[in-house]
Amino acid sequence: MGPFAEIKWVVCHGPDVVHFSELSIGSSITTGQPNCEHFDTEEEGLARAVELGYERPFPAVT
Amino acid sequence: MRLTATRASVTSGGGVAITALPDFTYGITSAGGVFNLRSAGTVNYDVEWGDGDAETSTLNTLPHTYVAGSYSLLVNSSGVYRPYFNNVTADANQITSVAIGPGANLGTDLLNAWYGASNMTSFVCAFDVTSGVTSFNSAWRGCSNLATFPLIDTSSGTDFSGMFFNCTGLTNIPSIDTSNGTDFDNFCKRTAITTFSALDFSSSTRFLDAWYDCSSLADFPANMFDTTGTLISNAFRQSWSICALTAQSIENILVSLDTNGASNITLAISGGTNAGKTTWSAAAVTAYDNLIAKGWTISFNS
Questions:
Q1: Which one of A1, A30, A37 would you mutate to disrupt binding with B, by most B Cβ within 10 Å of its Cβ?
Q2: CB-based contact, B137 to chain A, within 8 Å
């Protein structure tokens, strides 16, 4: 998937795992998981990831 | 005043002068006003403020009012004394240097010890005094004017997360002992390193954002992840985003992760000037294909 002209947030998932990634402009992403969805905002992507069982690994830091 | 160690020097007259080495020597530059000496846990220490005042305290936040100027602040303690500036920038920003003598007892936890000391230009530490420290979490985080860092004993360390996070002036990570390290999240995120020297990651489980935005990081060694602890599913989330990895470095990373054998993990080697996939070696592409077949999610520059 990609590259995109804007930053995307990507949720790739399967029966065992949920991956949540930020994809910078011009980058691509490939997954061995059976499903992959992309979102325009981090909030949307994170909400979907959490819905699928994703657990944030630590408080957000910048 | 407790004397924990001494320094011998020859005087101009040929005699020998014995002087005490303080546990901690802080260089302080004050614009005039209050500086709070910050620590954590149970403490009992002597402090010489460097302006003629001295006292003994058990307080974790001990205020002192300076007139504008630079001072050498000395701290000695007979027990554990754990610095804890914890990003209280009004105090941390007054620190220009830290020297830790061989008699210091840091205990086991340096969480956020000098976090936010953005004007610190020198950190000197006797090698052995950190031998019992298990957590280096964010100990020097935000020390953005620190250009070099000494070799210290980190052999007991398990938590290295954020250790050098936002040390934006740091050009080299010393070859510290990380053999017991499990957590390397944000390890040297946003540092100025160009090369990462080999460390022992044999106990590691996570590297989220570890080298994120090290925009000059080009060279990363081979075999770093051949053997690790049990990696979490987001172990390499944004780990090498916004770096400058060469194609050889990307091969080193991918081949080692493939050798590791772990499945279903996310990895980022995208953004910045990381070598694009069209420039990767055949070995790198093979490792990449193997990882995808094992359920990995990998972001990369096209």
A1: A30
A2: no
Residue A16 burial by Cβ neighbours in a 10 Å radius (0-12, 13-18, 19+): exposed
Using pLDDT thresholds of 50, 70 and 90, give the confidence band for residue B14.
Answer: low
pTM comes to 0.92
For A17-54, how does the pLDDT look when each residue is reduced to its tens digit (9 = 90+)?
999 999 988 899 999 999 999 999 999 999 999 999 99
| Cα A9 to Cα A19, A41, B84, B140, distances in angstroms | 10, 6, 36, 30
CB contact set of B111 (below 8 Å; sequence gap of 6+): B40, B84, B135, B137, B138, B139
Determine whether B279 is exposed, middle or buried from the number of CB atoms within 10 Å of its CB (0-12, 13-18, 19+). exposed
Distance CA B175, CA B221 (A): 13
Residue B2, pLDDT score? 46
> How much is the pLDDT for B13?
55
Sheet holding B266-269, edge to edge: A27-31, B297-301, B266-269
> In angstroms, what separates the C-alpha of A27 from chain B's closest C-alpha?
5
CB contact under 8 A, A57 and B232: yes
pLDDT at B3 (0 to 100): 41
Nearest residue in B to A23, CA atom:
B299
For the record, the structure tokens of B149 come out as 């860092």
More reliable by pLDDT, B142 or A58: B142
Sign of the four-CA dihedral B41, B42, B48, B53: positive
Specify the higher pLDDT residue, B301 or B17. Answer: B301
- Taking the CA of residue B300 and the nearest CA in chain A, the distance in Å comes to 5
Question: What confidence tier does B286 reach under pLDDT thresholds 50, 70, 90?
Answer: very high
Task: Give the residue numbers in A contacting B (CB under 8 Å), as ranges.
Answer: 2-3, 10, 12, 14, 16-24, 26-33, 36, 57-58, 61
State the residue for tokens 């969805």: A37
CA distance B146 to B125: 14
Contact B30, B68 (CB under 8 A): yes
N- to C-terminal Cα distance for chain B? 63
